[in-house]
Design goal:
mainly beta
Length: 106
């Protein structure tokens, strides 16, 4: 995004047989009169009417995306490859599992 403070991610995915599109705004929170936070956070808006919040954590080539707050029992963990163009991993959900996920930058 202009200014280089936020990343806009346009999403097209199929989840449990349902096609979903959406947009995610990723960056650091900076409320009025406050310094920018240290965490990378996002809000995702989808075609089903959901708004989902995430916290990102990158260590080397491994990305963890926490659903809600950092340390949440629901999260994605994956590894970048192909010059950081592909991210392979899986979403983990408490109770009934999760699913494998591959993200590709166009």
């Amino acid at each position: 995004m202009t200014g280089r403070f936020f990343l806009l991610q346009h999403v097209e995915l199929e989840q449990f047989g349902q096609a979903i599109t959406g947009i995610e705004v990723i960056g650091q929170l900076r409320p009025f009169g406050e310094p920018a936070g240290t965490d990378i956070v996002s809000r995702f808006y989808d075609s089903m009417g959901n708004t989902l919040d995430y916290v990102y954590e990158l260590e080397g080539d491994t990305l963890t995306i926490w659903a809600g707050a950092q340390g949440s029992p629901a999260y994605f963990a994956g590894t970048f490859s192909d010059g950081d163009r592909v991210l392979d991993g899986a979403w983990v959900y408490p109770g009934d599992g999760g699913y494998a996920s591959t993200m590709t930058r166009r």
